[in-house]
Amino acid sequence: MTFDTPLTLSGPLRKPRQMLEDQEYGGHGSIHSDDVAEKLGFKAGPIEGPTHFSQFVPLLEQIWGQAWYERGCISAHYQNMCIEGDEVRAFADMPVGGANKIRVWAEKADGTPVLDASASLGPDHPQTLLEERMAKLRPPERLVILEDLHVGMAGAEEERVKMDPDQDMGNLYPFSLNQKLAVITENSPWYSTGDNPWGRPIIPLEMVSVLGEYSLAKAAYPTKEPAVSIFADQEIRMIDGPLFVGEEYVLRREIAALAESRRTESHWVRTRIYDKTGERQVAEMLLNHATLKESYAGYPKD
User: Looking at the 3D structure of the chain, how many domains does it have?
Assistant: First the structure.
């Protein structure tokens, strides 16, 4: 090769769709409702963070091919919210010298950062962006909304989930896979037919988040309500992927970390995804639920 010039892939500008206006949890609406968002000082109900993951898939397939779907990991820190109508572009640095970790990121059309992330290919992943961030967390000084949680706390029960094409995904995700595919920024026949290397439809990367959160209420983590949370950080890692439409999976959760900032209390939940036997782990999700202190009526004013 004549040049060692660093190169970056980029995708087209897209307008992701907001599908969570009617989302409910804990008996109340979410930050994705315009009414709730405006009361908390936001312009409108934001688009859910993992919606943007779809824009990275064509870039990462170009870089790592089929292996991306089977052993890929995206590890993202969400930076600025997007609302319906915002245009977003995804970027990915090309790996140098066979590296199995790169930086990926997304920006609005005006250059405003949306998320920063690492993408890597297993099984031997270098330290991911969120592993780096977690290593820098300081123990919270005082928790109110999350005071009954502790690191290592498992979910109340083992959860069994699946995603059929027309299955309504519940109050957290009041839409089906087919409804998502009608508006997803990057669609593929691999999501709806068996015309792919695995012979059956695969769950899109952004919908792995939906599968992983679908049965969250069964975990019964004792957080205080009503309070409004946002996704602040999220990692989705394939171990023996991809995940398949209509396939049953077993989820096991635990609290991976607790943290606090001026405006939020956070619990990081690690959700391990197993095949239907519960013996073979196929994927994993790490998600930082950041709860807005001002959304909890009983939060101490000091």
Answer: 1
